[in-house]
Structures are given as structure tokens and as C-alpha cells.
Design brief:
11 helices; alpha+beta; acyl-CoA dehydrogenase activity (chains A, B, C, D); four-stranded antiparallel beta sheet; Butyryl-Coa Dehydrogenase, subunit A, domain 1; homotetramer; oxidoreductase (chains A, B, C, D); Butyryl-CoA Dehydrogenase, subunit A, domain 2; Butyryl-CoA Dehydrogenase, subunit A, domain 3; 414 residues
């Protein structure tokens, strides 16, 4: 048996020469077009009266940056296919994503935001011409946004057998009933469609009882109950919505790939999606370490700079060590996807997903501690970073499930 | 030298017989008068239009519960003096505070909320008759609330030498200039006065350069810049306010105890205040463990209840072990304050403060992980508990400073 | 249901007035009679030629200290019964045991060494007059030593169902076959008898299939295969022996209490035995912290004393905090045994056993790190302490089993 | 400034094509020539009467394996220079060293044991023709062994200023006085020479006060006081010796490179030496994980295999994750040495050294815990592995010093 941990093909972690100009262009775009608008974008947001719409001027700022990116060819490069995007390898994308993770707006300006990236990838690979025309084209153009409705409130969603939202065929229509929550972005006025995971059968193999269906968000019966909070924040206007499906009817042809193929589609999106999250998380860890060093070097207590007091310098060292370890792991997982394909690289993906959000939370937490109260205030991005990354420890499969995948694989090696 | 770790006088950790009826009455009050209104109180709050006032009905609910507590004699018992309160020992209060920590409203219904408790205690001990008449009486009656303005944004406030807000005498008035932040409760419409830590001299011993001054919140020049966030939440309407003092003038007699005695007053309040926080934190850890067990027992994945999967049961055990260890430590620190006085018990207080918020954060975090996304939603109190307790790791002296106190004391033992 | 964590009867952790003179006498005995001979005792041992006997002079030193202890009435006080010992409560014994743990010889000079204490306690409670005469009397007199043969090499001994050594009745004799290992003290030339756990039946309730039988160590068929190492050390001449029972025949009346009552006897000894270990472990943690502070204060690097570099002072603080927490937990577990009895206090015992060796290992390990290479040399007791306490993490039930007991109990509370 | 963490030149971690046949040959050699003799070698050792010599047959076994390696060209390949060895890059050597770390004898059979490798490297680079003839040639031939005398018992040796052993010129001779300890291998009857770090001046820059001198071990005045223990073991017959230098006289020309250049030489050896240790440590971590999985899969308790109980499977996953992270870090540090040179790669070396022994200790410790008492016995290599790796946490600079290097470098980046 080939051992995925000793394959020589996975040891070259270099960015391709072809990707380097893109990598440099993205960094330049962030520095020149995104960083300068970030503060104003959020300040505008604070002043709005209707929390569930954007403030005047916000989308204009964003759209201007999007236009610049598009004009520079920095657009949709997440798609690993030559015809619809720039066909980056996962490895090349990893380097870029780590940069994107450092900025709260960069991804969107490049049309590379979750969950749109995953949704576009799925549509690109399995969509019918009609589905592509109606949904993929405006998504690729950055004109609309989308959501992915998977998680349900009443069950341990790490075990897929538990999906309870049901769709049954009634003539030419799927009739959907059930409840989903933490549907990120579904509050955004630009969000037009949800890819929805449903149960379409109780029989046959467990992995063939689910399907994925396109549901326009304005379909009658789609009830947005309200926003779920993330540690007290609702992230309006995009939100993480709690949604009920009350006899929601969509045409039969809105199903993706076919009945009973919901899991198959999940496999398609989850590997890259999880790795994208991890890649961006490395960037967030870098931001936290950077803030920690800056703050610690500029403040004094007891006659020394904070960073030289007690264990602080060792924490800086440990953070740097962990960041370099995480970076190498995520690069290698990306390389594994490139070389082995999503299925065979599955254990490498779980390995990265189980490692990176947990360690990054610790680094951000230490940066917070060094800042004192300012560390949890709106004056630094640390609290927001913490919430993002803490959330990731149970999104897309909790740490525990990924450890189970890695552990079981290890038993199989012996 | 007597060793504070081997004094036999500190080994009896029993609640006094005299306090037991009060302890039982408080538990009954929470169950009968507080628990039933809690959900409605917060639901009312969600619906309000002006975030910086209470919603109609909220204060009425609270006042009714306060009236019941007052009628039952459950009022102001935090004051360790017979004439103005029930004269509880710190040890007896510890048992009660752990119960209070389990409820977000209980403390206030008993007039036992921070920072009012500390402010009342200070006024009771060092206030002039006039100061007591004007501020202590309505505080003891639960008619007004108060704030404590100590932390400053621009300095490492764990080193007291750094206080920069200044007061200078101009005739019969103190003129105050400076900036404070995270002034909890200063947004509450009922908050009428702030005890404000200021620098009144640059000469003499460092510990005699500060003073504490009573500043009515409506004094001209008190500029409430806005709320500081705690992990994205502003906790309106009470808030944690950012305040500027622009030539704020108050009468000379508003000083507490006398010029240069600011630290002396701090010593008075900080020991008990820190222990009160720790006591309540034990209650919060109990809530988290309770939720963890309940959730873990009621959900299934992979054919077993969640609590029996992987490391979960061991986490429950470790949480219980830590809770019992924390409880004993806080009881012993309280006993030390009773037997040795605040000054001599200082190391015991630091020991508890360095231990309890850190470990409790871990327990709450594990409870969150077991809940999945629900754990960070508004559907459980876990996110709010986490923020409270995480905040405590740098409030009233960061963990690191308390470890320094304990460590230096240990060196002194050898 | 009564909650063992909130019983007021367990909150008074004071040593009894009656025990204090004994406590002080033991401390004096260690200082005056044990400390002065310790170095010589071990130096003599190093020079011996036959590793499996004592060096000339070693036992004489020990016997002289034993004689002093006996003359001073400091003898057999572990026995919780008035007629044969001093009837100490577990709580009182806890205070003394923490002192014993600081010295490698103190326990033996007081006839309080494991496993003799447990063996004597069992014989005292369930032995026949004949068994008492033959074995208990010389043990109580400190004339012989004994072993406890429970652990087996081929099975996970934390699950008692796994015991494979068998005894079958053949006329008036038990015939024993099987294999035991890590039988501590069985190499000691003074060791005369082993209490041996055997399987006597495969039927009936699992907890009634085992028995305990007295086996004189010189019985034909008892084959001492050799010493088991503990991290490379064989601890000659006492040793941790690997023993085979090859058709070992002992009289029928050598059974303790009766056939099928092996577990019942285990319950008797394991609670106190585990707590005794934990008590002594607190003393070892104190020794490690003491050495850490002494070394760190007397060495310099980079212009500061070691203890003031980096995280060292915080480690000292954390060690002190953990030691105080462990001390309180073990005192409370001892109190629980006194008040509730062994069976009801079982969860408290597991709680202490799961907590204390693990945390103490960390403290000793940190003390080692601060000493550099000297920390693992024969020039400090740290390496030996580490091995002792590390061993304890799987002796008498591994941490994991004790966490399971605490965790399951917690589920039962809800 | 170039950032050592983002240099594209360091991202290709592939073994060179040229090295792969060597890598495969080494694995084959270990499997065919070393593994089969390992058990017998140690069994022979146990039976010897003089602990400070080898048992009859031991060296013969070893020499036969060495002869096979030599014949196969697997000899001295650690030397990064074409004329005297096979000129492996550090990266290529890293892959091989991880294999060597899995076997206690493999390194020696390939003439790749510490400290001989470092000593040969130093002699090869800075030795005079005469020094090379007398010492390097027999070392390269595997005919003699050597020691490196640096660490001193009375000072914190992580700060080089503290070296106290002195050498003064007296005519044509260096006269050396002082004390060294933990001089590994100096008890080996084959050890003929020590490279000795001494202070030759108290003036001038601190980094030019030391020198390194070749001292034949049979020089009059070299007093081997005795073996230092490593957690109770003396590792006879090689030992870790405590040595006094009493007016030891060696010819003036025994100095290496020149007076005051001791640190310069240290820089030469320490980088690769530390990385070699880390590389081998990865192999040890693999052994521990392998044993953990095998044991856990073959034992049962409570009706399940051990590995499926509680947190065990997650520990397996975490060990695998850490091993892969460590492997990538050590490969990248090796690559950095190849690309940047020892001096510029210094931070990468410290980063690996601070990370790998600490994490590996945890993995071995967990493997021990799963084995129960067998885990610390002579029946598995775990106890020995633990001691080796634990020792490494303060050998060649304690973790704390390496964290200081990484931390200070990080401050410099900002």
C-alpha cells in the first residue's frame, strides 16, 4: 500500500512559476485597492439605520475594488479549470489564500468568498447548461451571491445520517420541508439562491439518501426566522440565518446531478473548501502574531517592554513555530489534493482541518491577552478573528470528526 | 515566619451556621423570583428601539424582583459590617456568590452587582457623612447605580504607575482631564456617579501620587465617547463606556479619604472584588458543565450519545475535578481574607484570580465545542459566559500580574 | 439524592486536635532521625556487590531509626482502628503522609510503607486468628515485609475481568498457576508473603470470580523470573518482580475471607491505598518546587537569576497554585472517606487519583528542565521522583479509568 | 530585508534523485544487517560482569555490521564534502537520519554516531594535517571513538560566558584545569580523544575568550570521577562521564583553529548537530506511535480495543499530525542550512530544536500511558526513548534558549 505520508511526489511545495505573477498581483491589489478602503467600509457600516441592508456607499466602495480586480484579471482564480478561471492548483491557491486571510475584504473583491466559491465550483462541475446560465453566470460575474444550506439545528450534523430536511417529488416539483441554521450570507440582499442539502429517501445505502437542490431564496415558503448569533454578533447584513422551509416548491430540474447524489457533491466541495478555510486561517494567525509583537514592543510595564516580560517572548516564538508548521501542513495537504485527487487526499485535508483552527485560536487568544481590554475591543481585529476561527473548529466537521478520520487511517496503516 | 499555606486557621471551610438560612433563602429567591423572569427580561430587551435605554417593562420586572428580595431581607448582604448590611464573612459570601454566578440577573435583584458593591463598600468605610448621604444611601436603596473609572486606553494599566488622568486643585475645585475606557455600567441611564482614579501628584512615593474622586456623571466636561465592545458586543444599555474628561470640575470635598490615598482605597476594594468575581465564576463553570452533560446526553452521533464519544467523558471528569479544585481554592482565599485581613491574604487572592478565570474559560470552551454551532448562538448562554470570563482574565490585573505576585511570594518563602 | 460535592459535612478540613502532636512528632522524627541517615543509607547501597541484598550497614541504619520511631510511639499509625494502631482518621493521616512523601525513607522507619500498610489493613480486618498470628504480627512488628501480587503482564489489568492467574482446589490445597509482574518489594530478602489475586471461578457474577490467597514467597513453584525495570531502574534489592506461579500449592485456609471475595477485599484496600499514594505525592511536588526555586535563585544566565528569566517565575506560581489545589482535593477526599465510608467516597478517591499524579509529573518535569542536565542526574532526587509519580499514573488504575468513574458519576447527577 | 520564512528557495523539500539509492540502501541495511542483531547485542550486554567494558561478542556483532556497511559504501556519508564522504546535503541527510532514529544501533554501524560526527566534521574543516592524521583518520575508519567536553556542572551552560575550565600556556604546553560533566561516550574503552572547550582569556570580546583543544583521554591528570546518571541509568559502558582536569598538559599544537576561536568552531558544529538530533527524533516519534497503535489494537478492556476507548484514537491522530508537522519543519530547517548556510539558517535550526524534542516527549509519554506498566519496563524501548528525547530538551541549549532566539528574531522582523 502506498503511504500518503511518505510519497515523494508530495515533497515539492513550491509555488509554480506560472502562479507567482498572480500571487504578487494579488498582494499588490490588497495593498493598493483593498487596504485603503477597509476602514471606511466598516465605518460606513456602523452608521447605517437598517442593519439588514448595506449603508449607502458601502457597496460602491466594494464594487469599485471588484472592478479594479476584474480589470487586472484577478478574478475567479479559485476555479481549478482552465476554461472558466485561471486554473490554479490547490498548492498555488494556498499561497494566495494565506494573503487573503489577512484582510476582511480581500476575498470578496476578487470574487473568492465562501460559500460562493464552493457553490460556483459545484455548478461548474455538475450544473446543467440551464443551471449554469441562470446561476453560475451571475455568480462568476460577481453580480449575485449565494448560500449553502446544510447544517440543521436539531441534530449532530457531523454525522450525515442525521439530515432531516426532506424533499419529496410532487409531479414536477420538489416540495421541501425542514429547518436549517447558520446559513451564512443568507441575509445579504444580494443573495439569490441556496444550494440546499435534503433527504430524498430513507432507503438504500445511507450515502445515497441525500440530494442537493437549488432553491431561489425568494421562493414562497422560505421563511427566514432570524439571524443566528456568533458569540453575540449577528454579522448583519450578511448574517448566519435560521431558515424554515415550509412546503417550499421548486422545479424538478433544480436538483443537482441527480437524486441521491448529495454526498457525492459534498465530497467535491468539502475537500477544497476546508483547505481554503485553513489557508486563510494561516493569514489570520500571522495578523495576530504581528499585532502581538507590535503591541508588546510599544508598551511598557514594570520598566520593560511588555514583550520582554515573563513568558511573552516565548509565546511569540511558539506562535511563529506553530505558524510555520501549519503553513507547511496546509501546503502539503493542497499538494496532496493536486497529486492524489480529493478522495485520496481526504486524510491530509482532515489532518490540516483538525490542526489549524485549534492552534490559531490559541495564538489569537494570546495576542488578545497581551493587549488587555483593547484586545477584545473594536479597536483591533482580534475579537473578530477569534470568533471566525473559533467557529471554524466545528464548521465543516468538528475537530473531533477530523481527528477520527486521521486516527482511523492510522490504524489502517498498521 | 508564618507560612500562609500551612496555617491551621484556614482549614475550616464550613459555611457558618448563621449564614445557612441566608444561603438557602438566596437559592430559593433565584429559583422563585429570578429564574422565572429571566427569559422575558432578555426578550423584552431584544425588542427595544433605543439600544441605550431599557425597554418598557424591563426595569419593572427587575424592580419587582428587587422588592421581593428586599422584603425578604436579602439585600446588601455583601457589606461586611453589621450596621449597614448582614455582615457576612467572605467565606459565607463565597458560597452565596457561586449561586449568584449561575444567573445573569440574580446579583442585581439582591443589590449585589459590581461595581456597585465595591463602590458602596468604599463609601461605607471611607466616605464622609455628606458623601454617604448623597451617594451611599441611594445606592444601598438600589435607586441609583454607579461606575468605577480606573482603566485607561493608552497605558499598560496593570502597572499603576501608568495612570495618566490628572486632577489638579483650582481653588475649591478639582479639575480633571484625561481618558478612561471600559467603564462598565456608565451607559446605564440609572448610573449617576463614578469613582474616578486620578493622578494628583508626580512627586513622592509612587503609591501616594493617586487619588480617587467622586464625579457625578452629568458633570459638564464628562464626554461619553461611545461604548467599548467586548468581543463585538456593546452590552447596551449598561455598556462599557469610553469616557473623556475635559476640564471636568467637581468640588474639592468630592475626594475620597484624602489626596494621595487612591491606592490605599484600591487595596480596600480589590481583594474582595477579585474574590467576588472568582466566586461567581465557579457558578458559571457549573452552568457550562451542566449544559455540556445535558447536551451530550441528549444528542447522538455514530450510534452513541455524544457524551460517550471520544474524549468527551474525560472532559466532563476533568471539568468536575477543576471545578472542585477551584471551589476549594476560592473558599480558602475567602477564609484567608476573613482570618488574615485583605493585606495578608493578598497572595491567596492572587492565587485564586490567576487560576479560576483561566480554567473556567477552558471548561466553557469545551462545552461550546460539544454544542457545535448552537454553542456560540444566542440559544445557550455559553458565548456570553465565555466573554464574561475571558474578560476577567485581564480585568482587575491580568493573570500574568497575579502569577507574578504568587511567584515572588514563593521566592520569599525560601 | 445527596450530592457528594455539596455536602457540608465535608467542608471542615482541619486536622484533629488529637492528631497534631503526632503530626509534629513525625516531622521531628524525620528531621532528627531520618534526614541525617538518608545520604549514608544510599551511599552504602551504591557500594554493595550483590545488588539483590542490602549492603552491610544499610539495614542497621534503618532498624535504628525504626527503633526510635517505635520507642516514640510513632508506629503503625496508618491502621484506622484503636486496638492495633493509633486510629487516625484518613484526614489526619493525609497531613502526615504529605510529610512522609518528602523523604524516601521516612515511611519505612514508621512501618508505614506500601504495600505492607494495605496488607496489614486487610489482614487486620478479614484475617483469621491463625493468619493474623503468622503474618500480621511480624508485619506489625516490622520484622518481615510483604508483597501484593495483582498485576498481570498479558492483559489490560484496569479491567478486572481480565485476571488470568488461576487457583483451583485440589483436596485441601489451592493450586495456583499464572503470571504476575511489577510485584513491588518481592525481591527484598525480608519479604516473606504475597497476597495474591487469583481467579477461582468462571461462573457467576464477574465480581465474585476472584479470590485473594496468602502465598509464602518460598513456596515451591514460585519462580521469580527477574526484576521489571521502571524507566531503566530495577530498584534492587526491593525490586518490582516478574513472578510465575507453577503449580504452587498452599493450604486451603490461606484464602482470605472466602472464595469469590477477592473484589470485596480490593475495595477495602484500594480506596485508602490510592489516597495514601496521592497524599505522599503532594509531598513530592513540594520537594520539586522547593528545588526549582532554590536552583533558580542560585544560578544566573544572561545577567539575571534563572528564576527571573522567561516563564520561570510563572511556572513557580502555577506549581504553587496546583499544589494548593491538590492538597485541598486530597484532604477533601480523605474527609469523604472518613464521613461517607470507602464505598460512598469512591468518586472522591478517583477524582484525587486522576488529578494528582498527572499534575505532579508536570511540576517535577519543570523542575528538571530548570536544572538542566543536573536535573536528571543522581545529584538531585528529581529523576527518581519523576519515575515514582509517573508510575503512579497507571498503577492502581490508570488515570483514564479514574476519569471514567468521575465522568460516569457526573452523568448520573443529571 | 529577506524574510527567512517566505523564501521560495526553501519550499522544495524533495530528497535529491542522487540520494535516493543511498536512502533505500540504508533502509535495507537496517532491515537486513542491524535489526537482526539488535536483540542479541543488548542481551549479551546484560550478561556482562564488568559494566564498563563490552561483553564478549558485542563488539564483534557491531563490527560485522560496520564491515557490511563499509563494503556497501554506506559509511561516513554525514560529511558534507565530496572528498571525505558522500557529500550529502542536510536535506538528504534528514531523510536518512529519521530512519536511523528508529534503531538504537543503526547510526553506529554507519559510523554516523554523535558526537563522532560533529568531531569528525570539525577536524575535517579546521584540523591541521597532523591533527587529521592522528585523529580524523582512525575516526573515519571507525577504529576509535571520541568525546566532546563542553558542559560544566557548576554553571548555567546555556550562557557561554559561564565556561570556567581554563587552559593557560606554559611554554609549549596547554595546562588545563576544570571540571566537565555529562561527557557522553567518555567511558567507552574505544574513546581515545576529547575535544575540550576551555577558557583561554578573560579579556577582549566574550565570544573570543574560549578555545577548543584536543585532549587524549589517557593524558595524565584526566580524572574520570564517575558516570552521571540519566534518569537513573548510567548507560555503561559508554556512559556520560564526570571528568576533572587536574593540571592536564597537552602540546600547544593540540589547539583547534587557534586561540580564542572556540565559539567559531561551535557555530560550525552546533547547527548540523542539533538538526541531526531532531531528525533522529522524528524516527523515535514514529516508533512510539507505531507501538501505541499496535498495543492499542491488540488489547481489550471494557469490551473494546484499547485504541477505541476514550481519547486514545484522538491521541493517535494528534501524534500523526505533530509528526508530519515536525517532519516538515526539520526538512525545511535542513533545506535552510543547505541554501543559506549555518549562520543564516540559525533561526530555523532553533525553531526545529525548540519544537521537536518537546512534542516528541509528549508522544512517547502517551504511548507509555497506553501500555501501562509494560510501557516503562525493559520489554519496550519506550522508557529509553523517553529518556533520550527528554535529555535533548536541555542538551545543546535548552528549549528556552532556542525560543529566545526565535522570539528575538521575530521582534527584529517588525
Amino acid at each position: 500500500m502506498s503511504n500518503i505520508f511518505t510519497l515523494p511526489e508530495l515533497d515539492d511545495l513550491r509555488m509554480s512559476e506560472a502562479a507567482r505573477p498572480l500571487f504578487e498581483a494579488v498582494k499588490r491589489h490588497i495593498a493598493e485597492n483593498v487596504a485603503p478602503i477597509t476602514e471606511e467600509y466598516f465605518r460606513l457600516g456602523e452608521g447605517r439605520t437598517d442593519r439588514w441592508s448595506f449603508a449607502p456607499g458601502q457597496l460602491e466602495l466594494l464594487d469599485a475594488a471588484k472592478a479594479k480586480a476584474k480589470a487586472a484579471g484577478l478574478w475567479n482564480f479559485f476555479l481549478p479549470d482552465d476554461e472558466t478561471g485561471q486554473g490554479l492548483s490547490n498548492l498555488d491557491y494556498a499561497y494566495i489564500a494565506a494573503e487573503l486571510g489577512k484582510s476582511p475584504l480581500a476575498s470578496e473583491t476578487l470574487n473568492c468568498s465562501a460559500p460562493d466559491t464552493g457553490n460556483m465550483e459545484v455548478l461548474e462541475r455538475v450544473g446543467t447548461p440551464e443551471q449554469k446560465h441562470r446561476w453560475l453566470e451571475p455568480l462568476l460575474a460577481g453580480e449575485i451571491r449565494s448560500a449553502y444550506a446544510m447544517t440543521e439545528p436539531d441534530v449532530a450534523s457531523s454525522d450525515a445520517k442525521n439530515i432531516r430536511t426532506r424533499a419529496r417529488l410532487d409531479g414536477d416539483q420538489w416540495v421541501i420541508n425542514g429547518e436549517k441554521y447558520y446559513i451564512s450570507g443568507a441575509g445579504d440582499p444580494r443573495c439569490k439562491v441556496m444550494i440546499t442539502m435534503v433527504r430524498t429517501s430513507d432507503e438504500g445505502p445511507v450515502s445515497q439518501q441525500q440530494s442537493q437542490i437549488l432553491v431561489p431564496i425568494d421562493t414562497p415558503g422560505v421563511e427566514i426566522v432570524g439571524p443566528m448569533h456568533v458569540f453575540g454578533e449577528d454579522h448583519a447584513p450578511r448574517g448566519h440565518m435560521h431558515i424554515r422551509f415550509n412546503d417550499v416548491r421548486v422545479p424538478r430540474e433544480n436538483i443537482l446531478l441527480g437524486e441521491g447524489r448529495g454526498f457525492e457533491i459534498s465530497q467535491l466541495r468539502l475537500g477544497p473548501g476546508r483547505i481554503h478555510h485553513c489557508m486563510r486561517t494561516i493569514g489570520k494567525a500571522e495578523v495576530a502574531l504581528d499585532l502581538m509583537v507590535k503591541r508588546g514592543s510599544s508598551r511598557e510595564a514594570f520598566g520593560r517592554s511588555l514583550i520582554m516580560l515573563g513568558k511573552n517572548l516565548e509565546l511569540v516564538s511558539r506562535a511563529r513555530i506553530e505558524i510555520e508548521a501549519m503553513r507547511l501542513i496546509v501546503l502539503k495537504a493542497a499538494k496532496a489534493m493536486d497529486v492524489l485527487g480529493n478522495r485520496e487526499a481526504r486524510v491530509w485535508v482532515s489532518l490540516a482541518k483538525a490542526m489549524i483552527p485549534e492552534k490559531t485560536c490559541q495564538i489569537i487568544d494570546q495576542a488578545i491577552q497581551l493587549h488587555g481590554a483593547t484586545g477584545i475591543s473594536q479597536w483591533t481585529p482580534l475579537a473578530e478573528l477569534y470568533h471566525d476561527v473559533r467557529h471554524l473548529r466545528f464548521a465543516d466537521g468538528p475537530d473531533e470528526v477530523h481527528h477520527m478520520v486521521v486516527g482511523r487511517h492510522e490504524l489502517g496503516l498498521h
